[in-house]
Design brief:
- With 495 residues, this protein is an alpha/beta fold.
- The chain folds into three domains: 190 residues, Rossmann fold; 103 residues, Rossmann fold (3-Layer(aba) Sandwich), CATH 3.40.50.1100; 125 residues, Glutaredoxin, CATH 3.40.30.
- Helices cover 37% and strands 13% of the residues.
- The protein is built from 16 helices and 14 strands.
- A six-stranded mixed beta sheet has the order 1-2-10-7-8-9, with helices on both faces. A four-stranded parallel beta sheet has the order 5-4-3-6, sandwiched between helices. Strands 12-11-13-14 form a four-stranded mixed beta sheet.
- α3 links the parallel β4 and β5.
- The longest helix has 16 residues.
- The radius of gyration is 29 Å and the shape is elongated.
- The relative contact order is 0.09.
- Bound molecules: 4'-deoxy-4'-aminopyridoxal-5'-phosphate.
- The site of 4'-deoxy-4'-aminopyridoxal-5'-phosphate (PMP) has 20 residues, from α7.
- Belongs to the cysteine synthase/cystathionine beta-synthase family.
- It is an enzyme of class 2 (transferase).
- Pathway: Amino-acid biosynthesis; L-cysteine biosynthesis; L-cysteine from L-serine: step 2/2.
- This is Cysteine synthase B.
- GO terms for molecular function: cysteine synthase activity.
């Protein structure tokens, strides 16, 4: 970890196996492999790198060619990192019901995300990716069938596990399956090089695709041709899509699976929370689900048994999901009590303002002239005197930008206005003119409108529209919105 690396891609893999000290029964050696240590926080960074480099080697992916994949999120996030580093444009198709954190992360990394309807399930997003790849000549990763996915795990994840347990017998290796890449790649190697390790595959108890032993219908190219009859929606995002992938089926057919372990949703959530609160290991829902599987094995295992569970990803991409449903944003009654247990810095008793140490700033002639010119500039009749990063100013900027209202923003605390404290002087000149000390202050056609609330209220009453019309400002007046919704939530009135 403390080495020098040539690029972020060299940091994929080599994740730690960590002992679980408090959650398992005594006498059992329970370990987890924490895939959140990968650069983008999930096991799918491995697949992303494996598939792209395999396609490069085989000449299937040309420099600058667009890459496309259907993903529940983590593959897309991993691909976005690999494509950003290697310079490939990336398009991801994703069903709309996967967490919004994932979408925004991929877009932050420069990818484009095409959503598909939740009702079309995993196979819908897959079919959309195929459609787009064919129509545009893009490289489709095919993570569910691509052998490079499993091979990368056979080459990295499996040897890492063998090395970590070189000095002891590993009795159980516990995983789930999404693409089945982890499963096929690791199980294949373990069966050869550690034949006494039992391979346990977990799946949601309400979607027992493997447990039902019903076949998956499949087209000639290996892709599923219909949803599996045992599929039901479940909360373990990344596990058990609505079909058994080719890679997973290969593993079943090769007899590499020793046990199938159904996992209840509530047990998965509880295990993820226990990992966080009792072991300090922060991971996602499928990680909780895999640990829940490991704990089930541990209940009946002989003393001295060693179990390793895969923890596929970090918990940070689940803030909007059932994993965080009971985690408050506001203070709980207990925290309010704590706040009230000492006198200062409370919401029910405002603190005294700190004594002002700054010497009063006066309006210089330069500032007066600046203000006079700004307020009579007929090319820019809407002027906002603002602070660069103030939340109220940002909310107003959002309103102006949504309505396409052209305006000049004079950011008084920005670097541009710092020489001789010109910004402070302009603020003093404004204060003398309007009698208002707070910022932002908005003028239209030289007339003072007010601050953020006054502009919001005038927008809602229609008065702003009149002012803009009188000042000859063209904008989009078709939009209907509650401007107060543009304020960040911590500025909404506290209940
Ligand atoms: N958990 C999560 C959170 C995932 O994103 C994935 C991959 N879809 C998996 C588990 C399963 O990994 P694999 O695709 O290698 O079976």
């Amino acid at each position: 970890m403390s080495k020098r690396y040539e690029s972020i891609l060299d940091t994929v893999g080599n994740t730690p196996c960590v002992r679980i000290n408090k959650l398992g029964p005594p006498g059992i050696n329970l370990y987890v492999k924490v895939e959140a240590f990968n650069p983008m926080g999930s096991v799918k960074d491995r697949l992303a790198l494996g598939v792209i480099e395999d396609a490069e080697r085989k000449g299937l992916l040309k420099p600058g060619q667009t890459v496309i994949e259907a993903t529940s999120g983590n593959t897309g996030i991993g691909l976005a990192m690999v494509c950003a580093q290697k310079g490939y444009p990336l398009v991801v198709t994703m069903a709309e019901n996967f967490s919004v954190e994932r979408r925004r992360m991929m877009r932050f990394l420069g990818a484009r995300v095409v959503l598909t309807p939740a009702s079309d399930k995993g196979s819908g997003m897959l079919a959309k990716a195929v459609e787009l790849a064919e129509a545009h000549g893009w490289f489709l990763c095919r993570q569910f069938e691509n052998e490079a996915n499993a091979e990368y795990h056979a080459r990295t994840t499996a040897p890492e596990i063998l090395e970590a347990f070189a000095d002891t017998q590993l009795d159980y290796w516990v995983t789930g399956f999404g693409t089945g890449g982890t499963l096929k790649g690791v199980a294949g190697v373990l069966k050869q090089r550690s034949p006494n390790t039992r391979v346990v595959v977990c799946e949601p108890d309400n979607a027992p695709l493997l447990g039902s032993h019903l076949p998956q219908s499949r087209a000639d190219n290996g892709m599923p041709s219909a949803s599996h009859p045992s599929f039901r929606p479940h909360l373990m995002q990344g596990w058990t899509p609505d079909f058994i992938s080719k890679l997973t089926e290969d593993t079943v057919n090769a007899g590499l699976i020793d046990e199938i372990c159904p996992i209840e949703g509530s047990k998965a959530l509880q295990a993820a929370m226990d990992l966080a609160r009792k072991e300090g290991i922060f991971c996602g829902i499928t990680a909780g689900a895999t640990l829940a599987g490991g704990l089930q094995i541990a209940q009946t295992a002989a003393p001295g048994t060693t179990i390793l569970c895969m923890l596929p990803d970090t918990g940070e991409r689940y803030l909007s999901t059932p994993l965080f449903a009971d985690i408050e944003t506001e203070m709980t009654p207990e925290e309010i009590e704590l706040s009230r247990s000492t006198p200062g810095y409370r919401f029910d008793k405002p603190s005294a303002p700190p004594p002002s140490v700054a010497s009063p700033v006066t309006a210089t002639p330069e500032a007066e002239q600046f203000l006079a010119e700004a307020l009579t500039d007929t090319h820019q009749p809407v002027v906002m005197f603002a602070l660069e990063w103030c939340e109220f100013c940002w909310s107003l900027r959002k309103l102006f930008s949504r309505c396409k209202i052209p305006y000049r923003s004079v950011d008084l605390d920005s670097a541009q206005y710092q020489q001789n404290n010109l910004g402070g002087s302009i603020r003093a000149a404004l204060n003398a003119r309007t009698g208002v000390v707070t910022i932002p202050q908005i003028f239209i056609g030289g007339e003072f409108v007010g601050g953020c609330s006054e502009v919001f209220d005038e927008y809602s009453s229609g008065r702003l529209k009149e002012r803009l019309k009188n000042a000859g400002v063209e904008y989009d007046d078709s939009l209907k919105l509650d401007p107060y919704s543009l304020l960040p939530s911590w500025l909404h009135p506290r209940k």
